[in-house]
Amino acid sequence: MSYKLFIPGPIAVSEKTLRAMSQPMIGHRSTDFVALYNSIQPELQAIAYTKDPVYLSTSSAWGVMEGSIRNVVKKKVLNCMNGAFSDKWYDVALRCGKQATALKFEWGQPVDPEAVRKELATGAYDALTLIHNETSCGCMSDLAAIMKVVREFPDVIAIVDTVSSLSALPIKKDELGIDVLVSGSQKAFALPPGLSFLSVSKKALDRAATMNDRGYYFDYVEFQKNHEAGMTPSTPVISLFYALRSKLDDIKAEGLENRYARHARLNQTVRDFVFGKGFKLFPKEGYGSVTLNCFANTQGIDLAALNKILKSKHKLVIDGGYGILKGKTFRISNMGDETDETIASMLKSLDSALAETPKATA
Ligand SMILES: *Cc1c(COP(=O)(O)O)cnc(C)c1O
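Above: inputs. Below: predicted complex with pyridoxal-5'-phosphate.
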């Protein structure tokens, strides 16, 4: 059974990347590994526009998202929530035994900078979590506007999830004042899942050093100590390091600006086509993601039937709605390695499949 994924993660992985992964193992304390680690560093730093180290964690993104809560939240965390992943981050903070406030917006509505200012002004917080691109509902908040507010509160450490956006558009970590940036391998990087990225400022690292109960596996201080030697705290997923090395070569060859332009263009191509079929974007106008489109099922079609046709006849899969949005929205990814050709081919299949998709029976 072979079909191509157009769901917003995991993303289809190229043959080149898969081949890179099949190289022989090296010891994770060897000079070969240190050379590999050190070659990856400056390129990831360039992608995040940061001078801070980018630690590499053998875990899915949730590992470092939870770990960051343990490393920096001493007083109380403000969890900005506007979709499934950001909602869950609040729950994770509580499970870590932290004081937390849920700053809720409806799914698909962006995080409102003024609401963030109002909460932070109470002085109750020393950390904030924010998801830049809420993959569950295709909503991209205004990171620059929110970070401008957060910078007014120097005691507040901003933990920003860029899991489905990093490398698809410029995210200038240092300029924006993001203390902790987290991302993952299986979204915009189009790598298999299992590796996550964690870039931590000096301020956040200093905070971590004063924290009790940060554990071991996601301890910033352990990451930093090993980073200085070009290593990771424990045996990493070396195959994915090979994959990342290969992907960074791809990114270098394409050029970051071209990569950003490609994502914006393909995103618009999908949007225009689906609008032409009478559907609307689910997130608030002006806040649609550039790495995926989440469409409202305004035509009332049977999304399960659509996906069945797409999978069996066209060998591809889109997403039929996340969690509470199942059946109400559908999501199509354009992140990773997609090209004008692959998107055109997907849309041709979608066109044909839509023509035979029945209406949903209520
Ligand atoms: C996919 C995703 C996550 C969760 O990542 P895992 O790798 O499954 O832990 C978190 N945040 C966002 C925005 C995502 O898209």
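The two ends are 32 Å apart (CA to CA).
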